[in-house]
Amino acid sequence: MLYLPDQIQELYRIAADDLGWVTFREFAALGLIAITIWASAFQLTTASLAQIPKPSGRLAFYIRLAPVLLGALPIIAAAAGQLASRPARKIGEVEEVGSIFRIQDQALAFERNMLFILAIAMLIMLACFVAFTWRIGSRDRSIDIASRANNAYFVRYRFLALSIGGIVLLTAAFVLLPDRLAQFLGSFGVIALFAVCVVGLTVHFSLLTIRFAFPFIPVVFGGLFLLASLLGGDDHELRTVSEANSSPEKARMSAAAGFREWLLQKPRVEEAKRLGEYPVFIVAAQGGGIYAANNAARFLARLQDLCPAFRQHLFAISGVSGGSVGSAIFAAALRAQTAPLDSNAVDGKTCPKIADFLAGVGRVQDIDAPGPVEQRVASVLATDFLSPLVAGFLFTDFTQMFSPFPIPAFDRARFLEYTLENAGDRILGSQKGNGDQSNLLRADYQSHWAPGNNMPALLFNTTDAGSGKRAVISPFDFDPLHPKDTDLCVLAAVERTGAGTDQTVKSHSLHIPLSTAAFTSARFPWVTPAATVSVRNDCITSHPQARLVDGGYVENSGIETALDLVEKLNAIKGTSDAPRFRIYLLSLVSGQFGDHGSFMFGELMEPVRALLSTRTSRTYIALNHATSIDRRPDPEVTQSVQRFPTFGRTDITGLFYSLPLGWTLS
């Protein structure tokens, strides 16, 4: 995107408005964490002093220092994090007048300076904290107050029950308000509350251990954890839609049959006659956290706004991880702007803004300005996804670790799904709940695509943790026979009757929300848990349940699945009823083959490093495969038809800093 000077000033203004509240929450949370850790360590130190002879010399100094040092560690880590996250200044390119690097460097200068100022402010906060706690901890009165607090509060069972009750109420609040409460507190606020709860509970049990000489923490919590692990209290079952909201059961069609019906829609047939052949686009969206989601959704939305007919030619999107989430957001924005097939061109122009600019009528600012679809996408992408995930991880899923019975509402993956769905309501605005203008992210996944609804088919790539196969969530079957010896399985219930050549296969769709399907492709343990799905599909597993993880474990670009789809679709070429078509593959992929890097801890890390590098390299092997296919001669070349390369690659690269695999951007 082109950032002009007035846009840079607008960024400064927005950042300055938000910075005060965000900074206050961050500093308040850090202060609370530091004080909580120091106070708890001071309480335990006070209780331990009564059990040992009065210390003196260095031992007395170390006893005073330990609580202060423990409390200071979070502030030290936060200050180091602020310095480490500063965008690097580009040397060379930024010197050129008009260079996009120069413009981007100016846009990042505010973040670069503010992160440095925040780091200095945290160091000042650290100095104040150390001075305050060192002085308080050295007073005899403070030790006396801590001792009385231990005897009056922490060792009493009724206060232990009160603390547990407070934790239960806080956990229930996060379950009832999975996104709003966490977003109000912020990630640091959620972590601060968790620190208060865990530290308070730990102090209770530690003081009881000192009093009764019995190891309560390892026995109680270790026993519960072992019991929950043995009984398998798994709360990560895929969320399903209710029967009232699920799509009516329809026979699943094959990819080739679905594409044929899609291609035979009257407006497409007419345009194929006019152009000589019908252009068909298939997009592969790479994984990589919220950055990949932002790139895929923004790129597709900008393309749609510039060329309103794009959706008419977009057959499918093969997404992985963040790319799946981004494509789901794009589809939800398209659904909010429902348009029939024959109403996509404006004044007969496929891309009116670009046509006007090339004709000298339009301005470059018109092309760069976000259109209605991109504005809807941006409203969702502006959501804080990290805070709800942190709340689900620390409060609900952490509690589930000690429960032998699964509690589905405690699944932290659902916090992400609910956050995405609630953010999707902003796309609809005043149209929320009016007929077809429903939130697609809440709807049954299977309902998002039909041959005639002018929407792309969303293919979400996952990995079966047991077999290592690609398990693709798809609205149609790649192969109606669902062979067992293939590396690509479609996530659907499969029924087989008969044997050999007389065998018949019938598949049934799983009814899960679109948000659940998208985030199933983004299950990257330990950030998000592996998804348990109950399905009878011997292509994936012979067991009644499968565990699905991030699709990037097998191949992170989505290109392999896109190429498999292209092969199935090309099978109808030359048939009598299908118009002539040409498939274009567009990949949104960043980077290149990695290099070895550091040789540190070679004996220990080399096996792990090799496994991770092999996983990453499959993306670029797939890219080279797609490129080699595009270079093959086409026997059906028609001189009257304008030809373009059928495989286009748009690289996304972090030029100023390494983009994180996370769920938030600074």
- Residue-averaged pLDDT: 82
Strand content: 5-15%
The coarse silhouette is: globular
- CA gyration radius, whole angstroms: 29 Å
Multimeric state of these chains? single chain
Specify the structural class: alpha/beta
Helix share, percent: 40-55%
Q: Figure out the total of helices.
A: 20
Unreliable residue stretches: 1-12, 659-666
Through-space gap between termini: 17 Å
DSSP strand tally: 11
* Major β-sheet profile: 9 strands, mixed
State the main characteristics.
666 residues; alpha/beta; nine-stranded mixed β-sheet; two-stranded antiparallel ribbon; 20 helices; 11 strands; disordered N terminus; disordered C terminus
Task: Explain this structure.
There is one protein chain. With 666 residues, the protein is α/β, with parallel strands linked by helices. It is built from 20 helices and 11 strands. Strands 1, 2, 3, 4, 5, 8, 9, 10 and 11 form a 9-stranded mixed sheet that branches. α20 links the parallel β10 (581-589) and β11. The radius of gyration is 29 Å and the shape is globular. Mean pLDDT is 82; it is low at 1-12 and 659-666.
Topology (elements, then pairings):
Blueprint: H1 5-49, H2 57-84, H3 100-137, H4 140-154, H5 157-176, H6 180-212, H7 216-231, H8 255-263, H9 266-275, E1 278-285, H10 289-306, H11 310-313, E2 314-320, H12 322-335, H13 352-358, H14 364-368, H15 372-381, H16 386-400, H17 412-428, E3 457-464, E4 470-473, E5 488-490, E6 493-497, E7 504-508, H18 514-520, E8 531-534, E9 545-550, H19 559-569, E10 581-589, H20 602-630, E11 647-651
